[in-house]
Amino acid sequence: MASASRDAPPAPVRRLDYRPPAFLVDAIDLRFDLDPERTRVTASFTFRRNPATGADALAPLVLDGEQQHDVGIALDGVPLPAARYRLTERTLVVLDPPERGELTVSSTIHPAANVALEGLYVSSGVFCTQCEAEGFRRITYFPDRPDVLAVYTVTLVADRERYPVLLSNGNRVGTGDAGNGRHFVRWHDPFPKPSYLFALVAGNLAALADSFTTASGRRVALEIWSTPANLDRCDHAMRSLKRAMRWDEERFGREYDLDTFMIFCADDFNMGAMENKGLNIFNSRLVLARPDTATDDDYLAIEGVVGHEYFHNWSGNRVTCRDWFQLSLKEGLTVFRDQEFSSDMNSRAVERIAAVTFLRSAQFAEDAGPMAHPVRPDEYIEINNFYTTTVYEKGAEVIRMQHALLGPERFRDGIDLYFARHDGEAVTCDDFVQALQDASGVDLGQFRRWYSQAGTPIVRARGAYDAARRTYTLDLEQETPPTPGQPHKEPFHIPLAIGLLDAAGTDLPLTLEGERGRGPTTRVLSLTERRASFVFTGIGARPVPSLNRGFSAPVRMETDCTDADLAFLAANDSDPVNRWEAAQRIYCTSVFTAMQAAAAGAPLPDDPAIGALIAGIVADERADPALRALAITPPDFAYLAGLAATIDVDAMVAAREHVVRTVARAARDPLLRCYESLRVQEPYAPTPAQVGARLLANRCLRYLCSLDDPAAIALATAQFDSADNMTDAIAALVAVNHTTSPAREALFARFESRWRDEPLVLDKWFALQATAMRADTLPRVRSLLGHPRFNARNPNRIRSLVASFALANWPAFHVSDGEGYAFVAEQTIALDRVNPQVAAVLAGAFNQWRRHAEPRRSLQQRALERIGETPGLSPDVAEIVARNLAG
Ligand code: 0A1
Ligand code: ZN
N or C terminus of the chain: which is more exposed, having fewer CB within 10 Å? Predict the structure, then answer.
């Protein structure tokens, strides 16, 4: 599959080079004669010169297109002579085009051979598409850029027996016989859209059908399409969809706009899901759920992603991106919207802590490595590499900060103005901020730096209490470390929510010097300079500060809090996020103390403070179980690594395990009591109460099993035996996963024989073995590559087995002889020939290489060089390697 285009990676695309399209397309008529080996695509579209591009008045008509054969071209119904166009590896250029006309392009594509899963491909015998970001150009020749919006009419023709169901965007406007055992269905989408939102699905499918009546009384047909065998696993997704539709009306005033909303679930899909207009396509892992096959986490993820894709109908589809540098315009806003949805459906505090944990582990690491980029990037080689935690999750934090600065009412006014002003347009992040500013009157000028400057700011806080003046002065300072291409940073506008606690743990009113009356007990300070001081008056005794409440800004806080202050906050802070954060900081201190001892070859100290803290949290029956579970969860390796100056994997792994075992010993009785008191008796339901109880019980079980204690392992075995749901069954495997007990092997074998024919369930089994912190993990993963149910072309299988090993198993991936690195390099190279997009995810496992101590630093560098030397590397992987090895 090597070709010239793979050997010569394209030059970087730069944001500042943006030019409006020379030609616009108003309408396109697409016809597909579907055949897995040879699909003929005919596209007819009306084009006209863009009146907005005066200077480019002589520019040719340039269409994007790749991997197509037997191309035929006609202009206004007449075949175009060869002298009138130029066909290259990536474009079709019509020379001397008229000011307007109708172009018809026919070409042949080969869906069954499409293993990269971009464009039109076949998954489990079903045709489906993935066009974001630049997949449409693998289907037909077209200006494949998000600022060309057209009305689509699509005719699908296929064998009636094999492909009885033919779906595309919009409304079904015709069906009929096409002769030779074939039939056709025609679809029309009245909303102009960019090509990346086009979709088609064709196969032998069944639908779970329902309906939704919108706030204005329109009835919308809802359909979730899957293979008939999976129909009994679609109802949670359907419930989630209806909740999302209602919520978007109530919270954002956004109504659905077509007569039908469809979801199709694909077994082979590179990402999570895709918001194609009226026809979302999902990775089946994010649709299918039954209590015996899906965990609580799966249920929550399905609800969140169904919401996310649905919310894109406004934030992304009705108002779309001008160019791919603006990706966060739709993604940051839509992640914010799905986070708010999940918070309203479940526990707001739990959702927030989960979001903060993920952001700090994944996005802070991205900021600290070679892939660091602003929320609105300035250049890319392969746009697929920029579907990142910075664009998505940090992008959502940037929206959340604007929500904090404006307050909920003015924020809603701003969002309303944004949708009203730009409906049907392709716009920029600046247009978004401008709408918020215009609607609210709040100056967001300096705030815009969050879009243009990369990096995680550090905010240092020092407090001083003045008993004589009854004031508390908070000195704040911000600094953002350099990132590639941005050595110097200007100060950010940081909204920092804070509180002050008195000795009884009560929040004090916060009145700033010069203000009258009593202020609120939480307030958002705007830190806009490098340094600023805030003086609070009327403070009767030295308070304990609670800073960055709710994680109001995505920054690293460095404070002068004492250990006693942290223990006090962990017990008393009215802000649940900071209560959790205080416990995490105590945990981190314990691990870092042990790490220093490990690095020095000294015996690891047993810290009594952490054991007492966890014992106290576990025993506190008045507190919410879910929050207790989060508070006792040890910080993960990615987060700990981010706090270290240099990463010493051996010391970090030894220290973290040591502290976990210290806790397990010190808190054994409360952990056991808590575990036993929390067994859920009612039938399974993913309700916040049940989810919280299971989470806490299973965290306790994990601690108890960390000591390899046979009594604890017997508890896990009993739980596995009696589990009527996947959450408890998997939790039993998680609890024994790192142990050397023979019971572990027995449970894993039983799980495999029970679930070997359920790919999504078996993925959990692959992933657990790939993340086991055991000496035999790498040979085990190698042998699992030959498991009869492993499939090296399916992204879910690769993510479960290979990506979990590379990205989530610190001890095994970083084993000191470099074997883990060699394995991942070899897998990246092999996968790149099949699926570059997923191969680039594997290559990203090395992104932190410069931060590691020797010998791991050099060993990772060598692995990257080995990948980089491979002939015919995709632009996807080549870009990751080049950024890693640059400078
Ligand atoms: N827009 C989708 C994510 C997505 C992006 C790229 C894809 O294939 C290359 C697939 C999905 C979302 O945010 O859900
Ligand atoms: Zn999205």
Answer: C
